[in-house]
Amino acid sequence: MLFAGTDSSGATLEWGFSNLLNHPEVLKKVQEELDNKIGQDRLLNESNLSKLPYLKNIVLETLRLYPPAPLLIPHVASDDITVEGYNIPKNTLVIVNGWGMQRDSRFWSEATSFKPERFEKEGEEKKLIAFGLGRRACPGEFMALHGVSFTLGLLIQCFDWKRVSAEEIDMEEQTWFNLTKLLPLKAMCKPRPIVNKALL
């Protein structure tokens, strides 16, 4: 679980930052949320995360578009069952394409667009299946959401970020076990005033 968590959390941070750099208006909005709720006099801590709904929405939207495991953990049907008109015999291996479901326009408006605001609407978070569902969902979901949100929040609070060129960040995917970027993210950062205060 530790290996899976570090690998997938790192990939989620890279996807999140790539999206933020390609959508500077979203980056500006979340930095303003951090400045208004936390400020530049003290570092973000984990107990502050509940005060940062837009930051949470960014993480959820990143997980929706770029789930760390695009195919959810396989399950075996314990009985003969019919789902949506499909007969699934007992002992059939069932694999859920989470990546495809989370980009399906029947369930998500502008399904391939990065829009953290979509999670402001009540009930949208329940449609997210990046960690699976039910009893067999990923046991690290809470830890992953908090870890990624906390790290992303600190990096945004402490630094101003921009792309290394005027070109948008390439968002091409590379899939093996985890969904990672084909080309590693390159970005520039400039320390904000809180960095000097934190070092003193």
UniProtKB/TrEMBL annotation:
<protein>
    <recommendedName>
        <fullName>Cytochrome P450</fullName>
    </recommendedName>
</protein>
<keyword id="KW-0479">Metal-binding</keyword>
<dbReference type="InterPro" id="IPR036396">
    <property type="entry name" value="Cyt_P450_sf"/>
</dbReference>
<dbReference type="InterPro" id="IPR002401">
    <property type="entry name" value="Cyt_P450_E_grp-I"/>
</dbReference>
<feature type="binding site" description="axial binding residue">
    <location>
        <position position="138"/>
    </location>
    <ligand>
        <name>heme</name>
    </ligand>
</feature>
<dbReference type="GO" id="GO:0016705">
    <property type="term" value="F:oxidoreductase activity, acting on paired donors, with incorporation or reduction of molecular oxygen"/>
</dbReference>
<dbReference type="InterPro" id="IPR050651">
    <property type="entry name" value="Plant_Cytochrome_P450_Monoox"/>
</dbReference>
<dbReference type="InterPro" id="IPR017972">
    <property type="entry name" value="Cyt_P450_CS"/>
</dbReference>
<keyword id="KW-0408">Iron</keyword>
<dbReference type="GO" id="GO:0004497">
    <property type="term" value="F:monooxygenase activity"/>
</dbReference>
<comment type="similarity">
    <text>Belongs to the cytochrome P450 family.</text>
</comment>
<dbReference type="InterPro" id="IPR001128">
    <property type="entry name" value="Cyt_P450"/>
</dbReference>
<dbReference type="GO" id="GO:0005506">
    <property type="term" value="F:iron ion binding"/>
</dbReference>
<dbReference type="GO" id="GO:0020037">
    <property type="term" value="F:heme binding"/>
</dbReference>
<keyword id="KW-0503">Monooxygenase</keyword>
<keyword id="KW-0349">Heme</keyword>
<dbReference type="Pfam" id="PF00067">
    <property type="entry name" value="p450"/>
</dbReference>
<keyword id="KW-0560">Oxidoreductase</keyword>
